[in-house]
Design brief:
The complex is a heterodimer of chains A (434) and B (95). Chain A folds into 3 domains: 175 residues, FAD/NAD(P)-binding domain, CATH 3.50.50; 113 residues, 3-Layer(bba) Sandwich (FAD/NAD(P)-binding domain); 115 residues, Enolase-like, domain 1 (2-Layer Sandwich). In chain A, helix 5 links the parallel strand 10 and strand 11. Chain A has 11 helices and 26 strands. Classes of the chains: A alpha/beta (434), B mainly alpha (95). At the A-B interface, strand 22 and helix 9 of A face helix 2 and helix 3 of B.
Chain lengths: 434, 95
C-alpha cells in the first residue's frame, strides 16, 4: 500500500503514527514545502518572546522520525490527478502515485490587502521562516504596529514587546477578541497590555502602508491619523488552503468537506487538520476548528481509516489553552457571541463552536482571575478560565461529559454567586461519589 | 545555613521525591518544548506529554521547572499512589 501525506504539520505526523500502528510494511511518503519540516507551530509564539530557542521547537529527533519509517520529500504539489491516483509537483520531479492520500496542508494567514502591503517589513506569522523574519526586523526596528484580533495577533504583540519594541496595537472593533471574550475579559487583557507599554488604538483601520526604498516607514488609518513604524505585523484570520482540492474537483465549502472518517467525496482521499471542514454527526453540521488538539486527533483518525481500520472522529467540545497578556486562559465549549470585526472568519486557535448564542452567562472575577460559565438547562455548555487554572480541569470534565448540574444550577444563578467555590465544591463531592 | 536547616530541606525534598511526580494533560499540550528546554537534567518532558504519560524517570529531581514554565498549564505535580491515604483506603475497601 502506498500512503502519501501532503503537509508536515501535526495532523500529518499523527496520521503516520496511526498508519504505522496498523501497517508496518506499507510505503509512507510525506510531502512538505516547509524547509523546517515538523515543528510546533503554536510554539513560535514563545520563540518570538525569547522563552525558547528555535531548535527546541522540534519535538522529534531524526532518530524518532526514522523509527516511523517514512520518506520526507521537500516539494510543492501542483496537482492531484485523481484518475491516475498520482500527484504532480511544481518542480520537475516525476509524478508520485498513491493508493491513499491525506491532504493536511493547514491554513494560511489571510493577506492584508491595502496599498503598500507588499513592502518589506509587512509580516504575518504562519511558519518558522515568518518568525525568523520578524525577529530579524525587530532587531533593527524601534516601533511596530500589530493589526488584527485573536490569539495570533496578541502573540505578535507580546513577542514584539519582549523584543523591546514600542508597539501600537490596532483594533477595528471596540475591544479585543470580541467574538470569544466578554467585555470584562477583553478589558483585563487590554489593561495588562497597556501596563506593558502597548498603545492600543480602537476603531482603527489601516488603509495604507507607507514606505521608502521598498521598506515600511509608517501607515495611514481610516480616520486620517498616520503612525510611524519600522514593521507591520498582521493576523486578521486564516484561510484553509483548499486550492489543490478545489482544482481536483473535491467537495469543498470553506475547507475540504470530509465525513466523520475524514474522507472526502473521493474515498481514497482524506483531509485533516486546519484544512478540513469536518462533519459532526451530533450537530449535523460541518465545522472548521483551527486548534492543535483536534488537528492531531483528526490526523490520527484519518491514518487509521487510510490503513483500513475504520475509526470515526467524533468532535469533542472545543477546548483550547492559550496565554493572553501573560495569563493562562482555558476556553471550553461555547462561550462567545458571534462576529468580530477584527477577524475575517476564523482565527488560529479558534473554534466556530465557541460562537453560539449564549443561554445564560455568569461570571466571577478576582484580581486577575476570572471564571465565566454558560449555564444550560441541565448541563454547563461552556466555560472560560483566566489566570488561576485550578477550576479548568473540573470544568473540562463537567462540560465534556455532560455532567448533570441540577444540584447546583440554582445556586449558580443567584446574582454575585461565588461560582468558583460552588463548582469546586460540586466537583469534590462528585469525585467522592465516583 | 545550620545543619538542621540543611537536613530539613533534604527531608522535604525526599518527601516530594517519594510521593510526587510530574503528570501531563496532553490535550492542553502543543509540543512547544519549553518543558524539555528548561529541564536541568535533560529529560524529554515533552515526549511524555505527547504520550500523556507521567514523567517517571529515575533522574527527575521534581524541581518543578517544567511545571512552572509551561505556558499552557499542561504539567502538574500529582501524588503517586504508593503511600497515599487514598491508596490505603482502596486496599482496605478491596477496590
Amino acid at each position: 500500500m502506498n500512503y502519501v501525506i501532503i503537509g508536515s504539520g501535526v495532523a500529518g505526523i499523527a496520521a503516520i503514527e496511526a498508519i504505522r500502528s496498523v501497517d508496518k510494511a506499507g510505503k509512507v511518503v510525506m510531502i512538505g514545502d516547509d524547509p523546517h519540516g515538523f515543528y510546533s507551530r503554536p510554539g513560535l509564539a514563545y520563540y518570538l518572546t525569547g522563552e525558547l530557542h528555535d531548535k527546541a521547537l522540534f519535538p522529534r529527533t531524526s532518530e524518532d522520525l526514522r523509527r516511523l519509517n517514512f520518506q520526507y520529500v521537500r516539494a510543492r504539489v501542483s496537482r492531484i490527478l485523481q484518475d491516475q491516483h498520482a500527484l504532480e509537483f511544481t518542480s520537475d520531479q516525476a509524478p508520485l502515485v498513491y493508493d491513499r492520500l491525506l491532504i493536511a496542508v493547514g491554513a494560511q494567514a489571510i493577506p492584508l490587502e491595502v496599498p503598500g502591503a507588499n513592502l518589506e517589513g509587512v509580516l504575518k506569522l504562519d511558519h518558522m521562516e515568518d518568525a525568523k523574519r520578524i525577529l530579524k526586523l525587530a532587531r533593527r526596528g524601534k516601533t511596530a504596529v500589530v493589526v488584527g484580533g485573536g490569539i495570533t495577533a496578541l502573540e505578535l504583540v507580546e513577542g514584539l514587546v519582549s523584543r523591546k519594541l514600542k508597539v501600537h496595537y490596532l483594533l477595528r472593533g471596540d475591544r479585543y477578541w470580541s467574538n470569544v471574550l466578554d467585555e470584562q475579559e477583553s478589558h483585563i487583557v487590554e489593561q495588562r497590555l497597556q501596563e506593558e507599554g502597548v498603545k492600543l488604538h480602537h476603531h482603527s483601520e489601516v488603509i495604507e502602508v507607507t514606505g521608502k526604498n521598498g521598506r515600511v516607514n509608517g501607515l495611514r488609518l481610516l480616520n486620517g491619523q498616520t503612525l510611524k513604524c519600522d514593521l507591520v505585523a498582521y493576523a486578521i484570520g486564516i484561510r484553509p488552503q483548499v486550492r489543490l482540492a478545489k482544482e481536483a474537483g473535491l467537495a469543498i465549502d470553506r475547507g475540504i468537506l470530509v465525513n466523520e472518517y475524514l474522507q472526502t467525496n473521493d474515498p481514497d482521499i482524506f483531509a485533516a487538520g486546519d484544512v478540513a471542514q469536518v462533519y459532526d454527526p451530533r450537530s449535523g453540521r460541518s465545522v472548521l476548528d483551527s486548534l492543535w488538539g483536534p488537528a492531531r486527533q483528526q490526523g490520527y483518525a484519518a491514518g487509521l481509516n487510510m490503513a483500513g481500520k475504520p475509526f470515526a472522529y467524533i468532535k469533542t467540545v472545543p477546548f483550547n489553552v492559550t496565554r493572553l497578556a501573560g495569563l493562562t486562559t482555558t476556553i471550553i465549549g461555547t462561550v462567545g457571541r458571534g462576529r468580530d470585526e477584527d477577524l475575517v472568519g476564523i482565527a488560529r486557535g479558534d473554534s466556530e463552536t465557541w460562537r453560539q448564542l449564549p443561554e445564560c452567562m455568569i461570571a466571577q472575577t478576582g484580581e486577575v482571575n476570572r471564571v465565566r460559565l454558560l449555564v444550560g438547562e441541565k448541563t454547563l455548555l461552556g466555560a472560560i478560565v483566566i489566570g488561576d487554572q485550578k477550576l479548568s480541569y473540573p470544568l473540562e470534565k463537567i462540560i465534556s461529559e455532560n455532567v448533570d448540574i441540577s444540584p447546583i444550577r440554582e445556586k449558580l444563578l443567584i446574582p454575585n454567586a461565588k461560582i468558583g467555590d460552588i463548582v469546586a465544591g460540586f466537583w469534590a463531592e462528585a469525585r467522592i461519589k465516583r | 545555613m545550620g545543619l538542621l536547616t540543611f537536613f530539613k530541606h533534604d527531608t522535604d525534598k525526599h518527601t516530594v521525591l517519594a510521593s510526587g511526580q510530574v503528570v501531563p494533560d496532553s490535550a492542553r499540550c502543543v509540543q512547544c518544548g519549553i518543558c524539555t528546554y528548561n529541564c536541568p537534567i535533560g529529560i524529554d518532558v515533552r515526549a511524555h506529554a505527547w504520550r500523556g504519560a507521567p514523567v517517571i524517570h529515575s533522574q527527575c529531581i521534581t524541581c518543578g521547572e517544567c511545571v512552572a514554565r509551561c505556558p499552557r498549564g499542561v504539567l502538574r505535580f500529582e501524588q503517586t499512589d504508593l503511600f497515599t491515604s487514598e491508596a490505603i483506603l482502596r486496599t482496605k475497601g478491596g477496590g
